[in-house]
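Tokens in:
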């Protein structure tokens, strides 16, 4: 077999394979096996089914494609180049190199046409569920009889590793329950993982598992060359409108490699120069030059440029008719998809400033005030809505076959919830929030990290923020949790002290279009403080009580701000000049200009005490190693909340004694 004797389809598929092989080989790093095996299914999908415009990757009604098995990203980069996106042949040659737009795993903020950031396995399946939820909700909200403006599919390619990860099970269970008919997942079943055959650890019937989740499941026995079977499976999946579809495609990893196909060796390493040559000879491909693509193949793929422009133009015409018939809805849709907030939302939020309660209840008031003002704000809880206070009163739930609701039952699926939220946000048009107890962010940390890495506006609403939650004990009492979350770049963490700080935290979160926010809200009731402010909260840290020429600074967060204020009053009565600083968000404070930070924490005032019901390690950058940290450097205890706080030293007496000792 030679290039001259191959059909155009064979040439196209081999072009995908060898662009991946050559890029990985040049980089001396990467995963060539998946692109070599999955190229046929990807070709059929992208050439015959996918709806997209390479010259406008952000067209709102495009189909979404997710490569959950993100290690095989050269499959996606090859397709983006071939179909005419802003990815060049030179970019493929810079695979995995500094500053390139072809990084080692797909990143939505680096590469045009990449919808979601994948790599941690299984996350992409969760993202796909979120994308499909967003499509279903926007379709239910905006489509009208005779006017369909939201109508697209979410396609996912996942591998064995994705389906081993528990997050995939959580997300798939959710999708099956909801009956998301426009979600189609291809399972690249090549039975190889890094350590060898999947038989060593993974022997279940994955298709049967997805059937149990409520998915429509089909099988392609020969994914290496049976293009007709792949096409038939996609048609069948699209015909099932009340269930998500799972297509099990049996492939050979590293297809075409004489010595490495079907082995773990081709999973995560370059083939090597000799095996590259042998593989090209086996599949009838020129051994030189590297990155070779026949002209007729490029023309074949680049037809997507004109067809994509035509598809978008047709949609624009439909939208113009929709806009004429439903001008208010059309304006709302355009605003939501632009990411711009509506007028008046801040005033709606400020209506709760007269409330006094636990910050978790204040958060609930905030969400209920914001919901009518920001129709794209939607979300729910991982089976804790009555504790997290996330339910919006009077708003229906997003349920099977009834997708207009904005309240969500995510179930006890924290990790799946996190990935779904990311997908919903990355779709565009929505601002999602999800809630659980702060301690259970440990179950969803990977998804929270990807929120930050992906630069999405997701609101992580966490309650029961300290040992003050009480009797549930150390399994439920976060001690190190918030400190560790503060270490994640591009994640804003807020621990508000009262209603003004809660309002400020929500204001900050909603205006950060490329940064997720995590809130840590109290279970116990808190008193509003005279010196707190919305404006100060927006700067992360600020002065709530001051004195002329302060000799001591107390720095506190959340429920401990009230304690610091009370202790400062006692110390002031003793003639001590004390400043109290509330630090609702360390990372927001750290981003302020040095002049402002120094005005709040003057370098000349070295006597400082931090007060937070959690580990103390992160506070030394503010108090110095000569300062004193009042915190909890051990696990909590099962007892009533007030008892826990007292036993761990969160009393006026202990704060004052600590300050006196420091001043002495």
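Residues out:
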């Amino acid at each position: 077999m030679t290039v001259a004797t191959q059909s155009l389809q064979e040439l196209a598929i081999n072009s995908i394979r060898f662009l991946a092989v050559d890029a990985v080989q040049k980089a001396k790093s990467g995963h060539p096996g998946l692109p070599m095996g999955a190229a046929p299914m990807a070709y059929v999908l992208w050439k015959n089914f996918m709806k997209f415009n390479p010259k406008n990757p952000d067209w709102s009604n495009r189909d979404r494609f997710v490569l959950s098995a993100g290690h095989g990203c050269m499959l996606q980069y090859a397709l983006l180049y071939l179909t005419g996106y802003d990815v060049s042949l030179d970019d493929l040659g810079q695979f995995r190199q500094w500053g390139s737009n072809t990084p080692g795993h797909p990143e939505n903020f680096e590469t045009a046409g990449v919808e979601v950031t994948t790599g941690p396995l299984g996350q992409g399946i969760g993202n796909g569920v979120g994308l499909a939820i967003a499509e279903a909700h926007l379709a239910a909200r905006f489509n009208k009889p005779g006017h369909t403006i939201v109508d697209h599919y979410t396609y996912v390619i996942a591998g064995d590793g994705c389906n081993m990860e528990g997050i995939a099970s959580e997300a798939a269970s959710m999708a099956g329950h909801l009956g998301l008919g426009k979600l189609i997942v291809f399972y690249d079943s090549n039975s190889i993982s890094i350590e060898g055959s999947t038989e060593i650890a993974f022997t279940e019937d994955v298709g049967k598992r997805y059937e149990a989740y409520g998915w429509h499941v089909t099988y392609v026995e020969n994914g290496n060359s049976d293009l007709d079977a792949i096409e038939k499976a996609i048609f069948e999946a699209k015909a099932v409108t009340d269930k998500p579809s799972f297509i099990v495609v049996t492939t050979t990893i590293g297809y075409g490699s004489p010595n490495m196909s079907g082995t773990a060796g081709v999973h995560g390493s370059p083939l090597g120069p000799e095996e590259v040559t042998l593989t090209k000879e086996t599949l009838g491909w020129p051994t030189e030059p590297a990155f070779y693509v026949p002209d007729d193949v490029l023309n074949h793929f680049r037809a997507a440029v004109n067809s994509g422009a035509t598809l978008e133009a047709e949609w624009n015409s439909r939208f113009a008719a929709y806009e004429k018939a439903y001008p208010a809805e059309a304006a709302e849709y355009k605003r939501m998809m632009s990411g711009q907030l509506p007028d008046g939302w801040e005033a709606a939020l400020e209506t709760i400033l007269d409330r006094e309660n636990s910050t978790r209840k204040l958060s609930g008031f905030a969400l209920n005030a914001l919901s009518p003002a920001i129709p794209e704000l939607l979300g729910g809880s991982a089976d804790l809505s009555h504790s997290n206070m996330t339910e919006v009163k009077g708003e229906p739930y997003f349920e099977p076959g009834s997708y207009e609701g904005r309240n969500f039952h995510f179930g006890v699926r924290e990790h799946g919830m996190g990935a779904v939220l990311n997908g919903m946000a990355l779709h565009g048009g929505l601002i999602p929030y999800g809630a659980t107890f702060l301690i259970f962010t440990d179950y969803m940390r990977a998804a929270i990290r990807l929120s930050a890495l992906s630069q999405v506006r997701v609101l992580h609403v966490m309650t029961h923020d300290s040992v003050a939650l009480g009797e549930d004990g150390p399994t439920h009492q976060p001690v190190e949790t918030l400190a560790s979350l503060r270490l994640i770049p591009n994640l804003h963490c807020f621990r508000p002290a009262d209603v003004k700080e809660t309002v400020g935290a929500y204001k900050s979160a909603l205006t950060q279009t490329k940064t997720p926010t995590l809130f840590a809200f109290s279970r116990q009731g808190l008193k509003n403080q005279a010196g707190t402010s919305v404006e100060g909260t927006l700067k992360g840290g600020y002065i709530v009580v001051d004195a002329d020429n302060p000799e001591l600074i107390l720095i506190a967060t959340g429920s401990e701000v009230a304690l610091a204020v009370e202790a400062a009053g006692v110390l002031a009565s003793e003639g001590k000049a004390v400043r109290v600083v509330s630090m609702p968000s360390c990372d927001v404070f750290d981003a302020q200009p040095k002049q402002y930070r120094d005005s709040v924490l003057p370098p000349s005032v070295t006597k400082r005490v931090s007060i937070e019901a959690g580990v103390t390690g992160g506070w030394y950058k503010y108090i110095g190693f000569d300062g004193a940290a009042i915190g909890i450097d051990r696990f909590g205890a099962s007892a009533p909340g007030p008892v826990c706080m007292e036993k761990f030293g969160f009393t006026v007496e202990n704060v004052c004694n600590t300050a006196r000792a420091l001043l002495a």
